[in-house]
Amino acid sequence: MARTAIATAFLRVAFLALLTVYAALGFTAEHPKQAHGDRERFEEELLIKPLPDGHVLLHFHFTHWTPAKKHHQLFPRAADQLSQALDFEEAEVSFTRGRWDNRRWGDPAVPAKPMGAELIARFPSSLAAPELPSAWGNLTHAFSGLLCSSLNFLERSEMVALPEFVFKREAGSWVHGLLPKEAVCTENLTPWLKLLPCGDSHGLAALMDRHVLYSADYHSLHTHIEVTRGHPSNGGNEQLLTQTLTLVVRGSHGMSSLSARPSNWSLSSIMASPPKGACAVASQSQVYVQIPGQLVDRAKGVEEVDTVPGGGDHTFSAHNNALYIVDPAPNKTLKLTTMGVATSDAILVYDLEVNSSLDPAFSWRVAGNGGWEPRGVQCEVHTYIRNGQGESGGLVVEVGWTGAGSAPSRPRGLLRHELKKLCLLQTVPWFVRVWIHTMRMLVDGQDYPTARAVYKHMLGMSQDRKAPAMLELCLQVPATASSMAITVDFTPAFLSVTEHPPDAHRGFDIPPALVTFPDEDDSTGVRAEDLKKPSESIQVLLQLLQHSQRKYVYSQGTLVSLATPDFSMPYNVCCLTSTVLAIYIGAMLKALVKRTDADETNEGREWRKRLAGGVLLMILMMCWVLYMDPETRAQLVQWLTDVGILHVQTN
Amino acid sequence: MAGILDRRIWCGVALRTLLAGLGAAPRLVGRVEIASPLSSLVRVREGLALGDQGLSPYTGDAYHGPPLALSVFSGVARHPLWSLAPLIAADVASAALLSRLAQLWGLSPGWKSAGVLYLLNPLTVLACVGGSLGSIENLLVYVSIYGGATSNIPLCAFGLAAAAYWGLHPLLLMLPLCQLMYIGVEPATVICIHGLTGGSAHQPAEGLSRFSPVPTARGREKPPRKGWPGLLLFLCYVAFWIAFLCVLSEVALRKFKEHSCRSWVLGIRGSAECAEHADDWRYRSAAKHWMAETYGFMLRVEDLTPNIGLFWYFFTEMFDNFRSFFIFVFHSLSVLFLVPMMVRMPEQPLVIAVLQCIINALFKPYPTISDIALYMGLLPLFPVLMRHFQWWFFMCNSFLLLAVLGPAMWHQWIQVGSANSNFFYSITLLLAIWQVVLLVMLVDAALSKGQNLEKESQKTKAE
């Protein structure tokens, strides 16, 4: 026992020593190149945004960037190994619990993800098509190992779509897989935190209290790796790893979320503990509080009413005004510009490195929340089943532009002939057989010719137990339309007993539809080139906010119930059906071999044949016995030799 | 005769049109009793819609019928009424063929209305209005039997080849038809139809003399055998027609690249353009020859949608390990008694053909009510069998009961959700037993007829 312990300790020491020497060698070798631009970066940011119904959005954003080099100080080794082993260019995995509630929270500040697990990957166009399934399979297994999830179920092609148009940022082969039933838990979070240089002991990640995280109304864990393949001689790949965690939590505990009473909150009251300072290796640790434009406008309105006209040059402060106060005062205040259009949203920037015990608190100065109502969302998508009971039904994907008047998407007045474009991806599992010829389109409740609306499409037909149906439609509808629906009829299939999941009566998931907008700027907001410039401090999250949040809009998935067989019946069915078969064989045999009078009359001339048949049968049986039994064969040979027919040479 | 038939034909057509016009078609088109994955009009429409998109109809698992079925419906499939026109025409033609057969075989007037019985059979009407392609398969089977009965070898071979092309199982009728060609049409007809017409057996059948130049049909002395030349000619014609239909299918699918790449006939398989797509994931669904998607699909029993047959529930419940074994067992049962029947009833190939139709209806993986209508239409042509058959009252009533209970159980299970799959399964099981009983009774009847025939001939010899 003791010897083993000593041996292990020795091995450990030896290994560590080796590592040190190796690392030292690596550093010294790389040292001349370690100029500006060759430095790894890690940044941590946190966005806090109050929501109209008293909830608070928290968005943790961690960015790792590494240039092409062999050895990394900050960049997580697991991610590096992953990108070296597998030939992908971009991979995005998200685990989400709960649903982003458009009606209560308005448009998401960062794109909301569908429930369950989602894996999107882009493979290089150079990858040969036959290698795509294995590349995807490896990726699913790698990610499911990295993040302790069951993403490996996505390896089977029956869940996976190969869209052509919806992801258009970069050229390549996009593969999209969804697991709507995936449960999200701390076992996904723990390995995710290990990718951070400070883990959850320092920095913003130290805020992540498990109880708060998993009692949140919406929880989305997101990992995104982008690899720029370098030449092997340059020492590796340039990589950008983004880890985000989005939470929607109650502002103050113990208050009904539906009550209209305002909630005052502070970071420590939400997350159960204040921050423990910045992560030492982070190039920046920032906390932003985003005050929605509506609130700012309303606060301005309140102040104008309050102040006596001409009563001195009072400057409006976005953090301390008649409506609310955010304490402490921010290091600086910014105006948010989304897609080149100035909005009235204010962003209060705090630097965690300056103030390590930062605890921003938001409190109302008035009773009520100043009449702050959730603004209509720009666009929402719904998938639902029409007439799902019975042998046929209809699948409806509906896109509604409820907040049609909102500012950034409508910079100018609309003309009648103007069209708006969107691309829609709906994957339908094979057991829901959709009939393409029944596809209809409704715009504002009126039939609209599909041929006029669809300007490009890709249809993947479902294959039983192999491939889902994939409807990928790029549509253009009149810009004045406020809703649009695609309906398609389907017939539910019947699965065998072994194909049913354990809880078959729960229903079967139809994955959510995904809508993207080809007209709008779709860049990710952050370019790797920006991160190469070491002198500038890039606030990645701020850049992201300045771009469209409508990159992806998902519907919520839906359930379809299939008729189930009786799971307790296999043996009974075997017996009953086999009984019928036995009756068939037995009765037919009896009917066919029954001897009729006519057969009796023929018996006289048949006896010779019968005798011949009998003799033949006996000979055949004897041959068979001889073939099967070597002893009898030996006896026969012996006997024949004795008689003198055979002459066997015996030595 | 023709006048009566005409009036009744119009009656049948009007009945179908009326039902379709009243909107029965959309309700019937999805019924499991009527539409199987192989024979549903919905799937034909889907296949045509895919063709319009430039996709092969065999992309994915939407369409499993033969390629030429798409050509039959290509112009009319979209229209709710016109899409039924080919099916109505097929039913009318079937009825005409059956009437003509009854006429040829000189059946007594009571049996002559076989065609009308077929046309007004509720099963046929429902199958036709529900858009089951089985109507066309039935017509092709009747064509082959009619061709056999009129010793029109090319027509018989065409009917057989086309029916086998359409639904595969009619291919099993080839053996009885070969037997028919071997022993000659007239003696076979005489024995099958007139074997036990009692008093009328002594007179030459009047209908029969119409197509046979020499009235050999005495039924007592054994007529000369036709022998091998007729059989070989028949086989050649069958091979020719099958090859013809396959080439025609390849031509029909030529415009879809993924098929021309896999065509055995068009011969551009090895080209570079095709090699590019050979293993592509994206084209995975089109990676099969159409025969694998039609006949292969049928033989593999992949679709477990309930129907009136025995396969679906058995393979829903069966453990995966034993699946292939039991698929082999089930398919082998449809072939099992074909040769024994031919050995036992060498003089009655037409009867064997009818019996085999019943066996096909039992052991098709996706049977529909058209398959039942097929043999129900043929039975009135064999009055001898019918006379020997007992239990008419029981058989008719039990079938009526099953016809009511089947849809009721389906409704309880699927629409209402208050029953489970076993309810519908029990009805399909009883229907299978009903068909087994019918089959065995008919075998009994056929054998006892043969026995009587022998007795009769001995009696004549003694005289």
Question: What's a quick, concise take on this entry?
Answer:
Chain B: One of its GO terms (cellular component) is GPI-anchor transamidase complex. By secondary structure, chain A is an alpha+beta fold.
Total number of helices of chain B: 24
Question: N- to C-terminal separation of chain B?
Answer: 39 Å
Number of DSSP helical runs of chain A: 15
Mean pLDDT of chain A comes to 82
CATH class of the domain at 380-405 and 414-524 and 559-570 in chain A: Mainly Beta
Question: Can you put this structure into words, describing what you see?
Answer:
Chain A is built from 15 helices and 27 strands. By secondary structure, chain A is of the alpha+beta class. In chain A, strands 5-6-4-3-7-8-2-1-10-13-12 form an eleven-stranded mixed sheet. In chain A, strands 15, 16, 18, 19, 20 and 23 form a six-stranded antiparallel sheet that branches. The longest helix of chain A has 29 residues, at 2-30. Chain A is elongated, with a radius of gyration of 35 Å. Chain B has helices at residues 2-21, 24-28, 41-52, 67-73, 85-104, 114-120, 122-129, 134-149, 153-167, 174-183, 185-194, 206-211, 228-252, 257-260, 272-277, 290-300, 311-317, 323-336, 338-344, 349-363, 369-378, 383-388, 392-416, 421-462. Chain B has one domain (2-462). Chain B is mainly α and 463 residues long. The relative contact order of chain B is 0.11. Mean pLDDT of chain B is 83; it is low at 196-225, 263-273 and 278-286. The longest helix of chain B is centred in the C-terminal third of the chain and has 42 residues, at 421-462. Chain B is globular, with a radius of gyration of 23 Å. At the A-B interface, helix 12 and helix 13 of A face helix 3, helix 17, helix 19, helix 23 and helix 24 of B.
